[in-house]
Write a structure and sequence with these properties.
This protein is 3% helix and 24% strand. It is mainly beta. The longest helix has 4 residues. It has one domain. The chain is built from one helix and five strands, in the order E-E-E-E-E-H. The protein starts with 12 loop residues before the first strand and ends in a 19-residue tail after the last helix. A five-stranded antiparallel β-sheet has the order 1-3-4-2-5, with no helix packed on it.
Length: 135
């Protein structure tokens, strides 16, 4: 699970809406945004692109002070791995990154080996071949 969200933050989610096919993405970033509506595509004010969002059920309460709803948004920034595979996140991933295959309504996405893609495994050095022993 992401350390930035908990399942209790997502109690009123009804469905996840993807704006593009996420099958080829190793990770997406997730964040809670305040929006004026429970449904429909929210405004997006970050760099990069929004790849998905959640819609809320009819019982989702608005914040009493602002009248806004807290909804999850999934996005990627220009320097993320999908745009720059050899860049900053060639190894590792941002803190809010989760595997999009693990995202479900009311459940925080998970970090997986695919989403986190750590350093390449180290291999043992090859042993020199012994063709023949002196006799």
């Amino acid at each position: 699970m992401s350390s930035l969200l908990s399942d209790s933050d997502l109690a009123h989610e009804a469905q996840v809406v993807w704006l593009e096919n996420v099958g080829g993405l190793d990770y997406v970033r997730q964040a809670l945004d305040k929006t004026p509506r429970r449904r429909n595509k929210p405004r997006y004010a970050r760099d990069g692109r929004m790849v998905g969002y959640t819609e809320l059920d009819d019982s989702a309460p608005a914040d009493p002070d602002s009248g806004l709803y807290r909804r999850r948004v999934f996005f990627l920034l220009p320097h993320d791995r999908d745009n720059q595979p050899d860049g900053l996140y060639q190894e590792g991933a941002p803190g809010e990154a989760v595997d999009p295959r693990t995202i479900r309504p009311r459940k925080v996405g998970e970090k997986t080996p695919r989403s986190q893609r750590g350093p390449a495994p180290l291999t043992a050095p090859a042993k020199p071949a012994v063709d023949s022993l002196p006799g």
